[in-house]
Every structure is written in C-alpha cells, then in structure tokens.
Design brief:
With about 325 residues, the chain is mainly β. Strands 1, 2, 5, 6 and 7 form a 5-stranded mixed β-sheet that branches. Strands 13-14-12-18-19 form a 5-stranded antiparallel β-sheet, with no helix packed on it. A 3-stranded antiparallel β-sheet has the order 10-11-17, with no helix packed on it. A hairpin with a 5-residue loop joins strand 15 and strand 16.
C-alpha cells in the first residue's frame, strides 16, 4: 500500500476522475458526523474492505451528485480536524471486531486552511472475517459494501489457515560495480505476516522498461496502459552444490530445495535499475506492479508510483 499521501496525490485523483473500485472508496466530509448511523456506516465500509481484498477509504473527497458520474470524485471536501481528530476516527474504527491489524490513517493537510485535512484510511486484507458495529459482516461488491452470506463468512475466516504475504518496496543507491555510475536499485521485501509458514513462494515484479538497464533489453515485453513493461521473477529456491562432474572444466551438480518462509520472517529481492536519483522526477508517475504467490493463499497484489518510493540506507542482499 501507498505510505506517503500528499495533497498532490488527492488533486491528481480528482483531476483524472479516478473511479471508485473494489479497493477504493470516496467519502465526503459529512460521512464523519458524530451520529450512530454514521458510526455504523464507517465500520461497515472499513470492515467490508478488510473482508475483501483490502483497500483505501478516503474521507474528504466528494463524489458527483449526477447518477451517471456518482462513483467519480468531483472535488476535495476537507474535514475540520479540530472537530474530527485522528483519535476520534481510530476510536470509531476500533469498534470493528476483531480489530484490524495493520490499519493506517493518514491525515493529509489541505493548504486552504491549517485545520483542514483529508483522512486516507488504508485497510489491509483481513486474516479473518471482521464484524461491523451493527454486528453484521460486509464485503465489497462493485462500488458498494454488501452483507455477506454464511459461506462467504466461512471462507474469509479460513484465511488464517494460509500464509499472508506483506510487501514493502523501496529504492536504494546501488553498491558494488553499479555504485560508480550512481544507479539505483529496487528493493522488495516480502514478509509472512500470517500464522502459518509458506513452503513455496514465487513472485513477479513488473517494471517499466524505461527504468531498466541494458541487462533486461532482450527480455519479453508487455504493454500496460500504453507503457512498455518487463517482468522479473523471484522465488524461495536454493541450489546446493552436492558434487562436480568431469575433470576440467568441472560442472557443478546441484540439488534444489525450498527455504520455507516462517511466520514473521522476510526475504529480500533486489533489482538493479538503469536510472539514477536525478531521473526520479522525470519518471515519478510511472507505476511498478507486483504479484506474490504463497502455497494456497490468494495472491498478494499491489502497485506504487516511482515518485512515492522511499529510500533505504543501502541495498539489501538478494536471498
């Protein structure tokens, strides 16, 4: 999920009329009114996101009143922070049972007034089914939060029997042979935040071709939204040398094994890029996508703009 929201991001969403989806919902400022019905609605929307694929609810963006455009953002409709502080929203959301681990609330200050903010609530996919304040279970369906059937609740509760993979993507200044050229590296850290271990893990990273160096020039390309992408793969396989074949030159013989990803442990995948820090502004709006598969768990999917990536102190080694 995105971690560094700004007013610019919100203005771009409105300008581009980014439509609501399974993982995105807009709410005007009055959605935070201190009434029991609005409190129930908040917990309904947040729990529905957690019970589905996770996502983002933004409090402070108004949709069009026109029915034909009702799921499109019309304008920023900021919230008075003194009336509705971050702590109050956290208190309302804490009514969801069980509590949603990893939920983040980002107050984005709007420059039209020091007391005006937009609250971006980022909700992870839940490890189990979460109940709203009205004691019902909801899920996302198209643009709405709808009640769940019994079999859907049972399916979501079974998530705890699968590994859950969380992803952190950052940039790093390259080391070794790349360091002298000022090139950057893309560092993907994937962590098993579930309760059971993952025996088999493999992931796919899709990166705009313009960000990569000559080493990836011959790889197969794909076009997404008019942009050329290259795909790289990583997995938790280790090859151990068990013997050598022949005298000279000798050929190593390997045995392949999987290195299980236990709960709480992480692995790192590092991808050298063909751009330097000076290129970030030029390519800031390019999107990087990822998919990670672990045993029988639903895939972990996500994307982030290059300009929103933070820098790590140094590159992590690939495992």
């Amino acid at each position: 999920m995105q971690k560094d929201w700004s007013q610019r991001d919100l203005e771009r969403m409105v300008r581009d009329e980014l439509e609501e989806s399974l993982t995105l919902e807009y709410k005007s400022a009055d959605a935070l009114e201190r009434t029991e019905s609005k409190k129930k609605e908040i917990t309904k929307d947040v729990s529905a996101m957690a019970n589905s694929a996770g996502g983002t609810v933004i409090y402070g963006i108004k949709e069009f009143d026109d029915r034909a455009k009702r799921h499109l953002p019309e304008k920023i409709d900021p919230v008075a922070r003194n009336d509705y502080p971050n702590e109050w929203i956290e208190h309302v959301i804490s009514s969801v049972r069980p509590r949603i681990d990893g939920l983040d609330i980002h107050p984005v200050t709007i420059d039209t007034g020091n007391n005006l903010v937009v609250y971006v609530v980022e909700i992870p996919k839940g490890a189990t089914a979460h109940q709203a304040l009205d004691r019902r279970y909801y899920r996302r369906y198209n643009f709405e939060s709808v009640p769940m059937y019994d079999h859907e609740i049972r399916d979501v509760m079974a998530r705890g029997q699968c590994p859950r993979i969380d992803v952190e993507l950052t940039l790093s200044r390259a080391e070794g042979s790349y360091a002298g050229f000022g090139f950057l590296e893309l560092v993907l850290i994937y962590t098993n935040v579930g309760r059971v271990y993952a025996q088999y893990v493999n992931g796919f990273l899709e990166v705009p071709a313009s960000l990569l160096g000559e080493a990836h020039a011959e790889e197969k390309s794909a076009i997404r939204d008019g942009v050329e992408y290259k795909q790289t793969m990583f997995e938790n396989i280790h090859k151990d040398i068990v013997d050598f074949k022949g005298l000279y030159p000798s050929i190593p013989l390997y045995v392949t094994r999987y290195d299980p990803l236990l709960p709480g442990l992480s692995r790192t995948y590092t991808l050298p890029l063909g751009v330097t820090e000076e290129h970030i502004a030029k390519y800031a709006d390019l999107i990087i996508w990822w998919n990670i598969y672990a045993d029988n768990a639903p895939p972990t999917e996500g994307h982030v703009r290059l300009g929103n990536l933070a820098f790590t102190a140094q590159a992590a080694s690939q495992e």
